[in-house]
Amino acid sequence: METKKCALFVCLCIGFALLAITGTVWAAYKELENEKIAVKFEREVERGGYKVATTQELKGWLDQRKDMLIVDTMPADNFRKQHIPGAVNFEIQRPELTQMTDKMRADFEKLLGPNKDRTIVFYCGFTECERSHNAAMWATKFGYKNAYRQPGGIKGWFEAGYPVEKSQ
What we know:
By secondary structure, the protein is an alpha/beta fold.
């Protein structure tokens, strides 16, 4: 009987040790993934020269009725399903867009308008999506001084419990 108790105790100790090790490995893996995403994001912002607005900041600006343009950079099908209230759609591809055709540039600048000081917020699906980076970067290249990227995208907006609109 004593041998069985000892064996059970050893098994429990090994089990707890494995849980502790596995938890540590899992936490390290998640943290390394978070770090990878954070560094990629920081480097995109640095290259793009634009500003960043959190999901909560954007919601506050909407509540204050701040004069701004909100641009959803996702494909039109995604935009029709759900988008941030008041947003317009201008699809930008990913990965990083190194060139823009003359037509795309003309359409983009027409959408953004002539006021280079206006606040313009770009968003896409989620933090790792590069569409909003591309749009904010090109807006900055074209001289728009208040181009922002909302990194959480529609996923962050939805997770915050904020209202969305749908289009036909």
